[in-house]
Write a structure and sequence with these properties.
The chain is α+β, with helices and mostly antiparallel strands. Helices cover about 25% and strands about 25% of the residues. The protein contains 30 helices and 54 strands. β27 and β28 form a beta hairpin. This is Ubiquitin carboxyl-terminal hydrolase 47.
């Protein structure tokens, strides 16, 4: 069906397009005949030859969705146009096919998800960003907030559907979701159908935007707006700004909303100002609430706000009624009663326990006032008879409000499934409701009755029968019920029936289930008696037939949400108005508005005009990412440049200059905007000679997003901007000095992919001053993938160059040229450079203090055993480097989020992790840069290379080479290096800068920033750290720090650091490092009867080949020293720990690795024994048992039972012996979940699988094969304690508290729903201690 409809639609449009083309050719008359040769077309008709040739050019497929009204929101217009078609012609074609007047609508892009207006000034579709051969999605939207004008039939552009209202199904209910194909008639449902949804200009009404889940609010607001008496009264109230903030004034914001609903030209308006006055934040928009609950809460808030004003009693005058809650003795006729007030009448759909629902509102009203007889145990104590007597209890209506609200109680609770449900039974309601049969015709003061004071204030808006009280106090509360006339109650009830005829004018409909759904309102206008559907932003005409479809129906019916809910669409709240011509009001017209409302209308009109102008500006504003390397902050700044499409490049440059805060830093004429690719750090092109070109043309039109960015490039006053031409590639050239084994900062060079290697070398020679004849060029295509470019005539494209590239060049007379590249010094230098990483090392606080005397550290080199000091005597001492490094390193923090932020700033401010440091001295473990290095702009190339410039201090003997951000990224995109492959030339010279961390985790904690070759082993790395830790490598441990500061010890000394990457954090802790065959073990104490059964004790070391008894002997002094536990070796055991569950008991003669599997970071339980160990053999089974006492509603403590076999019979015998329960009465069940298998005492008796029919424990459903299983047992003859409701509730609270502390899920805890509240003080107050 889907495909057929789409193909049919496209075919119709294509046929119409061809008809239009033929009609145009005929209309053009002789002029076409003179200029064009006519040729046969595919349809065997003559068409101009030019049109035939046009078909050969690329075509642009445009798919247009009309979102201006709900009728067309699911329709799509498809146009297949030549690529040379102008945008104006596209507008004309869309106007013709959609049936609109051209110029009264807008087209906008939707390809990227955002809606961006289409630039009508562009010449052709291709220039506007359309792609030939692909789908181009557009939306047809309102222009300036006004809907498109429909073209008249005379113009020949009538509605393309060709259908009038009478030929289509009428609509009521939720609108179809996005993606629904076809027109409204394509959707069919047995619950409701679609009608023609008229334009706003035809209905004359404005919709309300759904913030997220505020459909219930929209339905109520539209109902109140369509109530003349409420709207007029609201208009007559005048807001005093001096007394209250307009933002928090609920009546004022409602007044503004109603004015906009009546006067706005928009299709729909927002309700955010109203909800803000409620004190709601954005999260409230995502809360679903009940419309009847909102009605009560809003009315209460309005009453509070209107106190001491003329509108103080407005809600009561319009919506409040009275009823009598009575009990009459059937023996003496004595009656006790009280007066209650109500704002709505809740009508039961289906009585409790009944299978048949009430068929109509009249039946439900009759049942509402139907009295019930109190007899038997429910007899009523009569004050007159002085005894319990049979009585009749019920409700009588005394007064109906002017506006009668009926709530159909469709939401109920199913005690079978214990879930909330929605009742979708059919319940009819009349258009005119006669309430005279339901009024109390008896005198309120009959001789046999006793008068009682109203309790209206206490029970306002509520009229449940259970509100009756036998204690009728005369000072309950004053009567808030206000009659609309001056007649007495007796006179009022004797009025003719015509005065109690109510007219239906609003039906609030719910579509969905008890879990959620959608509200909308069907409202009759009192102006023209026409029914309308107010469905959020869509307003449409409906008929009485559509109202009847909201009665509800059988469970087999399905609503719009049938895919998500098993529910239906039916009426939930009904609003009636008393038919009384003398009191029925009409809406105030604009010319009759009070003066303060006229002023408000004028202000809102001006505000709309301002919004219209702002939208026009937004439509023509280009928004693009802007980057700039700030010359002072020395970091890449990012911002968004918003510039009008008609602004010139020169004006845009000035805007970017101010946006980047460069005033007073560099002159404006030293800045220019260039096209930039931030991802590849590639300067695509510059705009020489185009300074006066509009930005709209320069950027290719106004779009939601661009495939490129802009860079504000800065030059020095003595420099000249280099032109960047399209098609060039950027190459960052690093000059390598083999003598000093350093790699210089990158120099940016632009080249063409068509250039040869020889030409490229000449280009590099011009930029660097090197000799092209002896030059070697090495391309780094990806991480550590080095390729020597040696074929002179090969092009850059053939060598694999891309937009942004990185090369290393070397030009010297050394004999290294003659060596094979992979054996050359150059390759080794670059290889080491690519494998060097930066690590942050946190030293222990106990580390020996001054490093002043440690100016050298031993090498762990395969090539040399010379000391570092002897090899490089000219280097500065560690003390001198430390002094220089203090300022730079003091801001480095290894603490959580601060460290990450400061690392980024450190990398951007000083790209000082230089390649030269990575490669100098053959070192695998190297220096950080000297902080004495300063920026020397004169010695560097232009800052347009987009990297930080740092020049080496000439006195500093540490060669330094700067790294751009891209270098860092390339170095970090690490691939694994084979741990066996270590270059023999790699030494492990070690020197790093300690830093005292004042803001760290501890006072005086030192931090090292080290550079290390990640191909060295962990053992070599630890040896290099020895001078800084101050103890041998066997006496400290290395912990790798992961996210959230989680630490894991690195113990595999033979593994390399290949899994580490730049800026990883390492913590050094003092303590004996593990030897081969040793494992670190965490010991926890098992306390089976404690609320917290698992308690950490200490860390220790177990070795392969050690017996359990030997490990216990080593534990004894540690337990005494660290945990203050003085134990005997025979009075505690070790056992397996799996998460929180105790497992296998380890026997003293067991050997680790042979009998017991052991691994790194192993965990075991230590259990203190009250008696000597009873476990002697692995064939035994130790289970933890716990008795359940139903008569006392409690669980006894755990007791261990040791079994010789897995026999159920033996288990029962041991339990019988332990508890004294006769064997035939003993029942047991296995515990569920993790230890201690907590369960509520309210659930254990029936929820566990008691007395399973098995003979052994190691079969289903028990599967008890290991020690530590939990067994509950009970006496089957013991009866469960009977609890009163109060006792059960109290026990439930205690159990809930207990189980929540242990992490057990309380299955009977009800789901908490957020209450609907309106805050009169501007918003909720949060508990300071609450997160």
């Amino acid at each position: 069906m889907y495909t057929d409809r789409v193909l049919s639609e496209v075919t119709q449009i294509d046929v119409k397009s061809r008809e239009t083309t033929r009609r145009a050719s005929v209309d053009s008359g002789p002029q076409l005949d003179d200029q064009m040769e006519m040729v046969p077309s595919e349809e065997k008709q003559l068409v101009p030859k030019e049109i035939e040739s046009a078909a050969e050019e690329p075509r642009v497929l445009c798919i247009v969705q009309d979102i201006t009204n709900a009728k067309t929101v699911t329709e799509k217009l498809t146009l297949n146009l030549p690529a040379s078609t102008t945008v104006n012609k596209l507008y004309e074609d869309v106007a013709q096919k959609a049936g609109y007047v051209n110029g009264t609508f807008c087209l906008a892009w939707t390809n990227t998800g955002d809606v961006v207006p289409l630039d009508q000034a562009s010449e052709s579709l291709v220039m506007s960003g359309f792609e030939a051969g692909k789908k181009n999605f557009l939306q047809l939207t309102d222009k300036d907030g006004e809907q498109p004008q429909i073209a008249s039939d005379e113009s020949g552009t009538a509605d393309s559907s060709g259908l009038d209202d009478s030929s289509q199904d009428r609509f009521i209910g939720p609108l179809p979701r996005d993606g629904t194909v076809g027109c409204s008639s394509d959707y069919s449902s047995p619950s409701y159908s679609y009608s023609s949804i008229l334009n706003k200009s035809e209905t004359g009404y404005v919709g309300l935007v759904n913030q997220a889940m505020t459909c219930y609010l929209n339905s109520l607001l539209q109902t109140l707006f369509m109530t003349p008496e409420f709207r007029n009264a609201l208009y007559n109230w005048e807001f005093e700004e001096s007394e209250e903030d307009p933002v928090t004034s609920i009546p004022y914001q409602l007044q503004r909303l109603f004015v906009l609903l009546q006067t706005s030209k928009k299709r729909a308006i927002e309700t955010t100002d109203v909800t803000r006055s409620f004190g709601w934040d954005s999260s409230e928009a995502w809360q679903q609430h009940d419309v009847q609950e909102l009605c009560r809460v809003m009315f209460d808030a309005l009453e509070q706000k209107w106190k001491q004003t003329e509108q103080a009693d407005l809600i009561n005058q319009l919506y409040q009624g009275k009823l009598k809650d009575y009990v009459r003795c059937l023996e003496c006729g004595y009656e006790s009663w009280r007066i209650d007030t109500y704002l709505d009448i809740p009508l039961v759909i289906r009585p409790f326990g009944a299978s048949q629902a009430f068929g109509s509102v009249e039946e439900a009203l009759q049942a509402f006032i139907q009295p019930e007889t109190l007899d038997g145990p429910n007899q009523y104590f009569c004050e007159r008879c002085k005894k319990k007597c049979d009585a009749r209890k019920g409700l009588r209506f005394l007064h109906f409000p002017y506006l009668l609200t009926l709530q159909l109680k469709r939401f109920d609770f199913d005690y079978t499934t214990m879930h909330r449900i929605k009742l979708n039974d059919r319940m009819t309601f009349p258009e005119e409701l006669d309430m005279s049969p339901f009024i109390d015709v008896e005198d309120e003061k009959s001789p046999q009755t006793e008068s009682c004071t109203d309790s209206g204030a206490e029970n306002e808006g509520s009229c449940h029968s259970d509100q009756m009280s036998n204690d009728f106090s005369t000072d309950d509360a004053v009567d808030e019920g206000i009659c609309l006339d001056n007649t007495s109650s007796a006179e009022r009830v004797l009025k003719p029936k015509s005065s109690l005829t109510f007219e239906l004018f609003s039906v609030m409909v719910h579509s969905g289930s008890a879990a959620g759904g959608h509200y909308y309102a069907c409202i009759k206008s009192f102006s023209d008696s026409q029914w309308y559907s107010f469905n959020d932003q869509h307003v449409s005409k409906i008929t009485q037939d559509d109202i009847r479809k909201t009665y509800g129906g059988s469970s087999g019916s399905r609503g719009y949400y049938s895919s998500a809910f098993a529910s239906s669409t039916n009426a939930y709240m009904l609003m009636y108005r008393l038919k009384d011509p003398s009191r029925n009001a009409k809406f105030l017209e604009v010319e009759d508005f009070p003066e303060h409302i006229k002023r408000l209308v004028q202000r809102e009109k001006e505000s709309e005009e301002q919004e219209k102008r702002q939208r026009e500006i937004e439509r023509n504003t280009c928004k693009i990412k802007l980057f700039c390397m700030h010359p002072v902050k020395m970091m890449m700044m990012e911002n968004k440049l918003e510039v009008h499409k008609d602004k010139t490049l020169r004006e845009a440059t000035e805007m970017a200059y101010k946006l980047m805060d460069l005033e007073g830093v560099v002159p404006l004429d030293c800045c220019r905007l260039v096209k930039y690719d931030e991802f590849h750090e590639y300067l695509e092109r510059s705009y020489e000679g185009e300074e006066d070109m509009p930005m709209g043309l320069l950027l290719g039109g106004v779009k939601s997003s661009y495939m490129f960015d802009l860079l504000l490039e800065i030059r020095r006053p003595d420099q000249v901007f280099q032109p960047y031409k399209p098609g060039e590639v950027m190459v960052k050239v690093h000059v390598v000095d083999l003598k000093s084994e350093s790699i210089a900062a990158p120099v940016s060079v632009r080249a063409y992919l068509s250039q040869t290697i020889t030409e490229f070398k000449q280009l590099i020679a011009q930029a660097t001053g090197l000799c092209a004849e002896t030059m070697r060029v090495v391309l780094e295509r990806c991480y550590n993938d080095l390729r020597l470019l040696y074929v002179p005539n090969k092009t850059l494209k053939a060598e694999g160059f891309f937009r942004s590239n990185k090369v290393f060049v070397e030009s010297s007379d050394s004999t290294d040229h003659q060596a094979v590249f992979t054996d050359s010094v150059l390759w080794k230098l670059l290889d080491r450079h690519g494998n060097t990483i930066r690590l942050f090392v946190s030293l222990p606080e106990q580390s020996p203090g001054s490093l002043a005397n440690r100016t050298s550290c031993p090498k762990a080199s395969a090539d040399s055993e010379d000391s570092f000091d002897g090899a490089k005597g000219s280097r500065k001492s560690v003390e001198a480097i430390l002094e220089e490094s203090t300022e730079k390193l003091k801001n480095l923090s290894l603490q959580q989020q601060q460290q990450q932020q400061q690392q980024q700033q450190h990398q951007q401010q000083s790209s000082s992790t230089s390649d030269s440091q990575k490669s100098s001295e053959h070192s695998d473990f190297e220096h950080i840069e000297s902080p004495a290095q300063e920026t020397d702009a004169a010695s560097q190339t232009s800052q347009t290379e987009n990297c930080t410039r740092v020049a080496s201090d000439t006195e500093n003997q540490f060669p330094s080479e700067e790294r751009s951000d891209s270098d860092v990224n390339n170095d970090r995109s690490t691939s694994s290096v084979d741990s066996d492959i270590l270059s023999s030339s790699h030494s492990s010279d070690t020197l790093s800068e300690p830093n005292s961390q004042e803001d760290g985790s501890g006072e005086g904690q030192k931090c090292l920033l080290v550079h290390v070759d990640k191909r060295i082993t962990l053992a070599a790395f630890k040896q290099n750290l020895e001078p800084f830790v101050g103890v041998p490598s066997t006496q400290f441990k290395v912990f790798r720090v992961y996210a959230n500061n989680q630490e894991f010890e690195s113990v595999r000394l033979n593994e390399t650091l290949s899994s580490f990457s730049d800026d990883n954090k390492i913590t050094i802790r003092l303590g004996r490092a593990l030897k081969k065959g040793e494992y670190r073990v965490k010991v926890y104490q098992l306390l089976v009867n404690d609320p917290e059964p698992c308690k950490f004790l200490l860390d220790t070391v177990f070795a392969k080949g050690m017996t359990v008894r030997q490990s216990k002997e080593e534990l004894l002094p540690q337990l005494k020293d660290q945990c203050k536990l003085d134990l005997s070796i025979d009075r505690f055991r070790l056992r397996k720990k799996t998460w929180k569950n105790p497992g296998t008991v380890f026997l003293d003669y067991h050997v680790y690795e042979e009998d017991i599997n052991i691994s790194s970071n192993w965990e075991v339980f230590l259990e203190v024994l009250e008696e000597p160990e009873r476990m002697k053999s692995m064939s035994q089974l130790a289970v933890l048992t716990r008795r359940w006492c139903p008569a006392q509603m409690k669980l006894e403590a755990f007791r261990e039972v040791v079994l010789e076999s897995s026999s159920v019979e033996e288990l029962k015998e041991k339990l019988s012996e332990l508890s004294g329960i006769p064997l035939e009465n003993l029942e047991f069940a296995k515990g569920r979940g993790t230890f201690p298998c907590d369960i509520s005492v309210l659930e254990i008796h029936q929820d566990l699988d008691w007395n399973p029919k098995v003979s052994t424990l190691n079969v289903w459903p028990l599967y008890i094969c290991d020690d530590g299983a939990v067994i509950f047992y009970r006496d089957s003859t013991e009866e469960l304690m009977e609890l009163s409701e109060e006792e059960r509730n109290e026990l439930m609270k205690k159990e809930s508290s207990r189980l929540l502390k242990t992490g057990h899920r309380v299955s009977y805890s009800p789901r908490k729903e957020k209450a609907l509240k309106i805050y009169l003080d501007g918003g909720p107050t949060k508990d300071p201690g609450q997160d």
